[in-house]
Specification:
Number of helices: 2
Shape: elongated
Structural class: alpha+beta
Helix content: 10-25%
Order of helices and strands: HEEEH
Strand content: 5-15%
Number of strands: 3
């Protein structure tokens, strides 16, 4: 159910795979391949959970779960995903343009 709290347990030195398996065991229809886990505002990537701040402490860390629908396409591999578009600005030109603008009194 959306908004519910479920506690799952993983080893102290657990990995993202351990967490996904524990989540899959706790939720019907949430296989690891369709899970998206987010901790501290960042996606939980493969590797140690400590890399994303999921460490034993009190209170326990919060990890948000999103499950893709069964008919949704599989996510693209991060290495194959296009780089985000980046806009570049000529800061000197912006400053020159700002200097020529009339000031409001």
């Amino acid at each position: 159910q959306p908004g519910n709290v479920t506690i799952v347990r993983v080893p102290v030195n657990g990995t993202a795979a351990d967490l996904k398996e524990a989540v899959a065991a706790a939720f019907d229809d949430a296989p690891p391949s369709r899970q998206r886990l987010i901790a501290g505002g960042r996606p939980v990537a493969d590797g140690p959970l400590s890399d994303v701040g999921v460490v034993p402490k009190a209170p326990p860390p919060v990890v948000h779960l999103a499950v893709r629908p069964a008919d949704a396409p599989a996510p693209a591999d991060a290495a194959e995903a296009p780089a985000p578009s980046v806009e570049t600005y000529d800061v000197a030109a912006l400053l020159r343009a700002a200097a020529t603008m009339p000031r409001e009194e």
